[in-house]
Amino acid sequence: MNKIILPLSKPLVRTYLYDAYPLSILAAQNDSYMSWLLSNYIQLNINHDFVEKHDLFLEFYGPQAMDSPFLRTQHLSWKFLSTIDIDLFIYLERALNDQNYFHCIVDEFFIPNTVFYQQRHFMHDCLIYGYDHSLRLFYGLNYNKDQLLENFTIDYDLFKSAIENNFLSPKEAHWADIVRLYKYKDYANYPINYNLIKFLLTEYLNGKNTIDACHRFEIPRPERDYGIKIFDILLEYLDCLIFDKHSDQLDTYFDTRVTNLLLEHKNLMLKRLAYLSNLGIQTNDLFQQYTSTYNLCKTNLNLSIKYNLTFNKKILLRIKDNLQKIKEDDLSILSTLINRL
Hints:
Layout: E1 3-5, H1 17-27, H2 34-39, E2 44-47, H3 50-53, E3 58-60, E4 71-77, H4 78-81, H5 88-97, E5 101-107, E6 123-132, E7 137-143, E8 149-155, H6 156-164, E9 178-184, H7 194-206, E10 224-226, H8 230-242, H9 256-278, H10 284-310, H11 313-340
Antiparallel strand pairs: 1-6, 2-3, 2-10, 4-9, 5-6, 5-9, 6-7, 7-8
């Protein structure tokens, strides 16, 4: 086989590539995965040590899309693979021929049209979903220089330089040694899980993470807050920007990943309400109410982008007011939803 391009589609979550990649694969198939996605992707978590870490990190919490029952995910070690006497190009072509998408960590210094291309060495995720043997090109998915999720092509040899220049040790960043193969399972089935939705909504509203209380796999990170408590951390973060607190430790720019992920969270909640309505649960009134919540999140995303262009702190005050209203909406609307499940 000289050429293959596996299907991809626009994912519902794309703030972080570890969500965007597997969801792009699932979205390209059919809607059967939605029952799993809407039964999960409810809980959020955020770090409250953002001053010490110089970074605010808000993300979905729980099973990630790579763990979906609709994907067969193989976890490999790049350090191990690189010691095997195997041609990288042959390995990749055979994996793709077998309908496996290739998720790896690369040095974006070698990836065209990225922020760091030919500027600075920076390790980041990359998804390869096709190849053209005659043209010696791989087809990939990544954030472009404008931080938009975009398809790209890259020469075989340039990609080889990008993946082989993995300068981070596992101790520095354990994620940098990971290679994943994703293959869609067309035989998978997952009915909507009402009990799980109700449980996760309750966890979210209570700001708790009792699902990991028994430390099944690892001790939950002590610097994280969950669910509704994320708003307290976001308001604290905004106060730091508004009043120039810890200006020597925090970037003056607003991290738009925060407002973008909140928008994705509300978009999924709207889709969840619509899905439940189609199954006979009374949610039409909640859908209308939550649409206003979604629009507030959309406004906040636009405001955060505007702030980064103007640094007008009055904009941050508007974002702060909107966040307080979004929190109130979550407490009210989602409590009603729990009572109806």
